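Model: You mentioned two targets. I'll fold them one after the other.
Researcher: Yes, keep them separate.
Model: Target one:
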Amino acid sequence: MLSQKATILCLLDILRRFSDEDHPISAEAISDKLRIIYDVEMERRSVYRNISVLNEMGIEVIKCTDNRGGYCLIDRDFDPQEVRLLCDAVSSSQFLSANQSRTLIGKLLKTLSTYQANAIKGTVYMNQSYKTRSSGVFYSIDILNSAISQCLCVRTKLMKYNYMKELVIDRELILSPYYTVCANNEYYLVCRDESDDKIKHLRIDKLKDIIIADIEITPPSYGFSISEYTTKYIYLNGENIKTHSVSCTEDEIDSMIDHFGENISFEKKDDIFEARIKATDSQLELWYAVRGRVL
């Protein structure tokens, strides 16, 4: 039998699961669910009193004054729109396995009422063909972040694919880990390779058997910027941004802005536009390839 002090937590759970602004729940229904789910007896007057206590604690529960009546929990960690956005991000993440994505989505949906969760649940699409088969990325990130916080090196094995599409050991490494970075839908470790004393980034899903070594890290050089490194070497693949001049039609302007973003300006010359683009050579080549044009 639950103690009297614990019953208010049961009441909060009932409000979290079975109420929202579109689905208030009456005091009588709260009492019924407390009895059925938790074997807790709570009279309506006690329901009113405990709801007042929740409000005093800063947990916002409001009483609906329209013809629906009842109470609903307003104080939630996420709005339904935020949960939907997070569910889509989790479902599309390639570094998460399908099972990990389903588990995380389930946890996100539990922050909403059952009505809100059911409205979102059936609309989240997950393309399993693009999901990793490995479920060890979370564990690897945890070890790496622990090593970073302790300023210690890690020993690991770098994997690569062979012609049989199997991941095999390429070489063993001792690394000074600096940052774990999520970019281009992958997780990378920005680190110093102690074998050649160079800063590089390695995909975490291709690091196997990571263990923390009893070796202090070699600190990054003074003035090292993770923002600048990530932009240049991960997003731009080590290339420099240049200014390019490209002729285009009015129909191509939309796709150019989608591809190159804000780093672009246009000048109209008769029926043709002259676009000035700030981009790498590879970004420009990709746009030409997508449009079926020759550079």
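Model: Target two:
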Amino acid sequence: MATINEFLKSVGYNIYMVSADARYFAFVQEENFAVNVICLFDERMCISSLEQIQGFNENLTEKLNYGRNKYIHILNIICGNNDYIITHSSVTGGEDWYIDTDRSELVVPPNAPEDFYGIKSGLASYIMQNGLIFEAVEAVSQEAGLNRDRIEKVPARDGVPVRRNVKGDKKVYIPWVTAVIILINVVAYIAQRVFALGNWEHQFYITNYILSMPAEWYRLLTYSIFHADMSHIANNMFSMYLVASLLEKKAGRPFVIAMYFITGIGAGIFSVWYHDLIGDLYYGLGASGIVFGLEGALMSYMLMSQNMRSKMTFMMAAGAFALMFLEPLEHVDTAGHVGGLVCGLLAGGIWCIVSSSRKNKRVSADKGSV
């Protein structure tokens, strides 16, 4: 006979925790930007106090927040008879879901979340057809332990094990992609200073005459790793570290690599087009267009997040960047900055939408196979 454990697993939720008395089950689903958790409390055997339920949620949040940098979304589903549901929902304000064990019915009070990432209809159908049946504790305890070890020791982001330091046993994330990008720029700058005879590096700068010379389009890839002087590279690499390392930690390495090349090429193309439009022959170099591009990608990532604090951060960052463009500075390629920022906003947004869409399709396919 089908169990609720099997149903939740079929829609992407893995057993994470189970109490010895089979009164409390927690199921976890790892999403792009969040960790979604469903907590089931079976009140048919022993009634949990509000403090106990809150304590379970706080303990769960603390464990899942450990080194993840994702948002933890928890839905409590409390199983009990009709009288219990009426009493409990009046005390809590009806913020939880309930399973009426007398009627085999999912109850969603008006103040509770209307849905929880598309699970409502499938769960209601399951309860109506099968009632409420849990797997035995001894049957799922080992699986819960394995999942708990995996989830708590490996970040949900990309499955790459993290290092720990000894003091405080805190996880240390090393942004390897960001480090490699900065190293390449530093090596290129040293080469400029050491082998500057004949200014050989000029063949790698971007310039608007490449529009009529396809053989020179390689400059769209090379211009960003060269810099004019020490202050130029120092400012760009400091900004690169702040933005890229944060983006790498939150969105993952593939995202940073893709955004680096997309925004670098986009910033170069926009700069070339603009200077050709105004008839200004120029040579451009530096990674600032990419920095702006990664800023744009980060803002798109925050805007797509379901966390309101991230959305507010996006608004403040957008306002700060708008002020920066009010008064263009001399010898600064503002067109490249604008092009990089726009490319980052668009490419980052498209990436996040496609990633979420693929995840939703996988979940829908799992539901259809139930």
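Researcher: Noted. Anything on target two?
Model: Residues 26 and 39 are 4 Å apart (CA to CA).
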